[in-house]
Protein: Histidine phosphatase family protein
Amino acid sequence: MKEFYLMRHGQTRFNAQHRIQGVCDAPLTEVGIEQAKKAGQYLAKQETIFDHVFTSTSERASDTLEIVTGRTDYERLKGLRGQDFGSFEGQPEYLTPKALPDGQGFGDFFVQFGGESTTQVRDRMELTVRAIMESVAEGSKSLLVSHGPSILQFCRRVLDPVPDIHGLKNCSILHFTYNQGQFELVSIYNPVEEEYIYGGEG
Structure:
């Protein structure tokens, strides 16, 4: 069995301004930095030592990882990036269409504006995370820092049943196991509120 922690980045300037942010980037705010520090404190308390660390190519994700772990020996992967919202990138969040029912996200809506479909996000996230898990040793622990919508769509692709998750706050940490090709969600922890929103540890 292998373990990995899939984590959302800390709050950014665009998060605070309620702007759509996928492949475009904005720096962490002071709040975001503090959120990452709290996440690091939680993982340290759990005595979690990571054999491997990965992040999306976005600066907000790599900065979060560095604050959480104090490490710079990570691998940046495009497959972990946020959803591409096309010409909606950087625009006010109120322009975002209503999500489709049954966890379908935004379907193909953003494709016509040069962005990604929900299926494309699910495909690349599963492909990327599965490739990581197949490349690391049995018994290893990995940390992956990614983005809220991408993480949610990964969950909706690989978990059955899918937990009732409608949004992930900044720096939420999802603990998974990977065994014989199967993903299992152990817990989701919100380090800012210091509470488990799914499952629990020990």
About this structure: The helical segments are 13-16, 30-45, 59-69, 118-135, 148-158. The chain has a mean pLDDT of 95. The first strand starts at residue 2 and ends at 8.
